[in-house]
Amino acid sequence: MAEAAIKTGSNNFVPKLFTFLKYTILVIACLVVFIPLVVVFLGSFKNNTEFLSSNVFALPTKFEWSNYKTAFIDGKVLLGLKNTAIIIVISCTGTIIIGTMTAYVLQRFKTVLGKVLKAAFLLATLFPSISMQVTVYRIMNSFHLVGTMAAPIILYIGTDIVSIYIFMQFLDNISYSLDESAIIDGANYFTVFFKIILPLLRPAIATVLIIKVISIYNDFYTPQLYMPSEELSVVSTSLYRFMGPYGAKWEIIFAGIVICIIPALIIFLTLQKQIYAGLVNGSVKE
User: Fold this and answer.
1) Of the CATH numbers 1.10.760.10, 1.10.357.140, 1.10.3720.10, 1.10.443.10, which one belongs to the domain with range 79-282?
2) DSSP class per residue in 137-190
3) Would you state the pLDDT for residue 28?
4) Is residue 159 predicted with pLDDT exceeding 70?
5) What's the whole-model pTM score?
């Protein structure tokens, strides 16, 4: 009896220890994410003197809303948000249309060319993107696209291999019988795609939109390289330019960071149900 009790206690100890470690790691991870956000949020409401002299976690004695006005107007964050929105809308629209069509053709029509394209996509993912930047830049420059919004838009649309594979993953869960029934009723492949397949890909589209929007919104390298002028600033390059005229005024920079976080947060909260549903549906095979 005693030995059985000891053995039972030992068996219960391991799961409890694992649970404790699991939640401890999750709490630490949350603190690592939220503590910098709290510091940035509080610092954005302080004046320069208070920011330099007070504790980073101290509440501001007076909320300086003028920091946000300076960042939004003088720091040209508004211009950056507008340019970023234009690039995101065009890039995401192109990615959804081209990506879904490409995935539909590759997944539904088993041809030798399709296998070659799949192999080419896999091969392309093995090469680091930075190793091809010189060639890509020379191509863009030869078409006189450097210094325009067209350059990053084309790159965002044309290099999105991950989105194609996400769409192909979801297409695996859509029965071929839907295509066959529609074709028997007289529909062509374009009708099948736009009327049947595309609406069923809404969870996948939401998943791709989340990934794509956050990726473009946070990208600094591509806009800085292909759109160096101040008139074509995006969110990331607008914040980078704060290091010039506002290099010593971190409260202004923090206000700009908070402004830039809000749109991404709204987008995520709006689409979080779709992204979670998309991830679950994409992991289930019939």
Assistant:
1) 1.10.3720.10
2) HHHHHHTT-TTSTHHHHHHHHHT-HHHHHHHHHHHTTS-HHHHHHHHHTT--HH
3) 93
4) no
5) 0.77
